[in-house]
Each structure stands twice: as structure tokens, then as C-alpha cells.
Amino acid sequence: MADFHKRLESNxxxxxxxxxxxxxxxxxxxxxxxxxxxxxxxxxVRHQPTVETETRQAYRALLACPTGSIGTGQGDKQxxxxxxxxxxxxxxxxxxxxxxxxxxxxGANSFFVQHPAGNWMIDSPRxxxxxxxxxxxxxxxxxxxxxxxxxxxxxxxxxxxxGAKRIIHREDAHAMxxxxxxxxxxxxxxxxxxxRIIPVPGHTPGSMCLxxxxxxxxxxxxxxxxxxxxxxxxxxxxxxxxxxMHHSIEKLALYPFEWVLAGHGGRIQLPSxxxxxxxxxxxxxxxxxxx
Length: 291
Hints:
Layout: E1 16-18, H1 27-31, E2 36-39, E3 42-45, H2 52-64, E4 70-72, H3 77-85, E5 89-92, E6 95-97, E7 111-113, E8 120-122, H4 129-137, E9 143-145, H5 155-162, E10 165-169, E11 181-183, E12 189-192, E13 195-199, E14 208-212, E15 216-220, E16 224-226, E17 231-233, H6 242-252, E18 259-262, E19 268-269, H7 272-286
Parallel strand pairs: 8-9, 9-10, 10-11, 15-18
Antiparallel strand pairs: 1-4, 2-3, 5-6, 6-7, 7-8, 12-13, 13-14, 14-15, 16-17, 18-19
Helix pairs in contact: 2-3, 6-7
């Protein structure tokens, strides 16, 4: 739980606040952009919610925060429970953001795809009864796709609970050594109908993207949307191999998609042609070419 005595001075006065345990994972800024902003090395409340929609979003951020760094001076239990019931959060029919980000994965986002041939989880949230019950209602979990070594979190517990098959690349398999499916090499493969695995080494040697229905690209820490600049971005720090990263970004231009669903960083939906243009612009920026 957040500690009011550790409240950051960068918070604006009011009910919601962020304390000094914040790890600046960006989850709160994605869920409640009207209230939370990045200030220095932390997130902070820069605009107190004024209407119920904003307050409910702020409570979602409070619940999703992996370190419990968001608090309130005076809570609204009814609205908090409504926010809790929002998770998993529906993004589009059959596509959900899990919420309850895990500190084990530095607050990375995870996602859930409801599919008639078996549901998928992409990376892992905290293991909580609320999510277990929700996934049960949605039909369980058949496959858990792990984008890279950093974001496995509680995948093993979910796999055990639902009898799910965990999928990870050989180069990152030390993070989940008993995974049921190990991806080898760099070739893109159609794993099962509608789900395409694209190895994208760079951030880590075993980083992978998952492309679903040629519309939804789950990118882990490889690619995300930056709302301030309105551009696609990729890592500049904590990169295993910058050359491999650049080649992996170029590789994604071979595939159509409309959504970028990132572990860290913003998610975005754009028309496929606009997404391809944004991706080409990122490639050129990384080459030092101005557009």
C-alpha cells in the first residue's frame, strides 16, 4: 500500500497521490492519462480526477500499479470495486489487457486473447484470484506466450492452474526452463492458424513478437507507441545487440498489423497503412535519416 508520508512532492494537492516507491513503469499513465504524468524519474498525479470516469481510471491505475505506489487520502470503495471488476479490461472483442501488473516484470503489461481454439495469455500479470476467476469465466488459458525473459512473472503459476502450454525462445529459456514449447532460430513461423511467432532479437537475444490475425502485434519490450511524440519507439537502453534490434524492426515491416500491444510503453491502434508508415519512419530515425 502507498504511504502518504512518502508522498512525492511532484503530486498536485488532492485525493490521489504517488509515493516514493514508484518504479516509473508507465502503467498508471497508460490507464489514467488525464491524471498521471511523468515528472523526473517518477510518475505523479498532476491533475486530480474531477468526474467519475477519470476517478474510475485513476482507481484502475491504483490497482494495476505493480508496487502499490498509488494511494488516496479518502477512498471510494464502491468505485474501487467497479474499477477492479473492469479487469481484464476489454480493448476490442476478444482482446483484453489483464491489469494487475507485476513487479517481477518491472510493471510490464500483459494481455489475454479469447479464441475458439483455445485462449492465449501474452506475458504474465500478478497471480490473483480475481484474474484466475475471470480467466475461468472466459474459458481458461491454453497457451502462454512469453515475449522475452524479463516478463514471465507468474506465468508458471497460471500454467499450472490452467494446464497451459508456455512458449518461449531458446535464447531466453533460462527464465522459464520447464516451458512446454521452445522456439528455435530466427525464422518467422505460423504456430497455429491465426497466430504467427516472429523472433525479434535485440532487447534480449530471445525476444519475440506475436502477430494475431494480421491485426494485433504483441511486442513485449521491442516496440511501443510514444503518445507525446506520436511515434513508434524501440529501446535505446538495455539492448543486448543494437544491430540485431534494428534488423528486427525492419523485419516487422514485412507484416501487416493495426495494433501495437507493448509490455512497456503505450499501445496504439492505427490503420495498417499508417502503422507501416510509422514503422518506416522509426527505421529511418534509427538510421539517422530525417523524414
